[in-house]
Amino acid sequence: MKQILTFVLLAVFVNGYSQTGQNVKTDVNSEKFPEISIRWNDYTPEVRNKSVFSITDNGTERIFEMARSQETKNKSVLFLWEDMNANGLEPYNFTRKTLLEFFRETILQNGDRFGISVFSRERNHEDLLQPLVSDFTDDKNLLVNAVENYRHNTAIVNEQPKYSDLYKAIFKGIDLLNAEPTDNIKVIVVFTVGWNLTGGGAKSDASELTNKAKENHIPVYVALYPVHSTGVEIVTIAEDTYGKTIEYADAKNQLANFYTSLNRQHSPNEYRFTFKTDTEKDGKLHNIVLSVNGKQQAHYSFSAPAFSLVDWAKKNIWLVAGTGAAIIAVIVLIIILTVRNRRKIKEKLNRVQNEANTKAEETRKEAELIKEQQISWQQRQERKKREEEERSEQEGLAKLMRVKNMYPRLQCSVAGNKFVYTAGQPITAIGRTGENDLVLPHPTVSGKHAKIVFNGSCFEIVDLGSTNKVIVNGQFVTHAALKSGDIIGLGEAVITFYL
Question: Which is it for strands 113-119 and 75-82: parallel, antiparallel or unpaired?
């Protein structure tokens, strides 16, 4: 009887419920139907105003509200360095000087990554790009060293010596950037005199290059070194991909300025449009078209909620309320008569049940207490046994160290201070805090950084989950056997192991 009452009350008084269809695309939100919102990312640098947009819903143009946002992103920048033999020493020096000044003097955003590849010409092989660093990196020193150590290409080329396979190098650069994190802004900066090779398997279609760069949202910036005369085709590619030309005379400053403006220039503008539809709740799929300056840019679709009994009840609320009230009155009368006769019986049954529950609970608690006491006693015995076994093992290892006279010396260097520590026990704890056997007071050393353990035949070092890890002879390790002369790095502290 109570279940019937509950059902009727829910049917009559339920409020605010609506069935929402699933979105076909994640860029569409119809949860607040009939309000619909759509999202569109525009990779062109310009900021568009509301007047250039139009939205049609099932062929009907809608009035909408618009909001724009732009998120700061990390960047992956690939420098392509053209280095040809003919007339090439001056461009080589220009590129080398500009890159060194950029990496030494520019403040780089955390998380930004850089790659450098050199190119000249290709004869139908895959080694056109010569990477100066093995992968994209944020290590300034590594990048500076790579540029400093690269030497000018002096290879003799008989045919078209002034021309490089410029377009093909940029094509390959786009492929390299596509392997970088999907969410990063990706940019190519090419240092070139602007002459592209034709024939011999070279890429010569500038429009194909422009289309690929735009499809992958990769602008091409050109640091142009003037050699006699330079064609404008590479400059046009830069403009068409939303890049820029970096002038030779002011390359240092322009390169730094372009880097600081990358987020503003190339983070996609996210536009969010919100409108109301007059589509009926029919459970069907409906189409939305977004246009810019009259040209269709994106197609979306959403499912309208299906008709439901709840919607019908809201439209006929007085009929539902009157019927519900009559049913409730009948049910309440029946309940009152039934409850009067059953109340005493129910109270007696409840009293007996409560007494039984209380007794059962007391018995359960007593049993749990006895069980906890037994477990606690057993745990104490096991802990005592383990401690005795560990103590016996350590005593045995200490005795073995004495017999073999194996007391390693640890020559320590911390923040310019040097001292020697002799390990006299099978386990030597090392860390920044005073509870360790060997204390290395430096912020790069963890509180409990590592331990040196004698295993009966040799000494081993074990990383205790430190922040800056353990390095042995230049290699990161979590566990390694030590030999005399090994150099151990714990943060910025250095230990030389002698046995």
Answer: parallel
